[in-house]
Write a structure and sequence with these properties.
- This protein is mainly beta.
- The protein is built from no helices and ten strands.
- A six-stranded antiparallel barrel has the order 1-4-7-10-9-8.
- Mean pLDDT is 90; it is low at 1-5.
Length: 111
């Protein structure tokens, strides 16, 4: 298979859309977020134990798979809206195919 064709997730995976408000920081009046953007990907609603940014075991209720170039939209603490509910980003894992015939993508674990 041509590695160029596997640069990102195949179009067939981009069946769900989420609205994400990137976490911008904490201030005197609480958390602040950037403007909402829509991102396409694949939502897997499955509970699993993961490790958060501090190494603590937490439960993720769903995982959103999207293109690797959206990594800046999903910092830890961001709000993600999907199917009438809002979740927070617990952590996100980058998977870079680095020229191999593997899809480069981002796995976003949601609370």
């Amino acid at each position: 298979m041509d590695p160029v064709l596997m640069a990102g997730l195949p179009e067939i995976w981009l069946v769900h859309e989420v609205q994400v408000e990137p976490f911008a920081g904490a201030g005197a009046y609480g958390d602040t977020f950037g403007p909402a953007v829509t991102r396409a990907g694949f939502m897997e609603e499955k509970r699993r134990k993961i490790r958060d940014k501090n190494g603590a075991e937490v439960v993720s209720n769903s995982t959103f798979y999207t293109q690797l170039d959206h990594v800046a939209d999903f910092p830890v603490g961001s709000r993600v809206a999907y199917a009438g509910r809002v979740s927070k980003v617990l952590t996100a894992d980058r998977h870079d195919g680095a020229g191999l015939p593997l899809p480069s993508h981002l796995e976003v674990y949601l609370q």
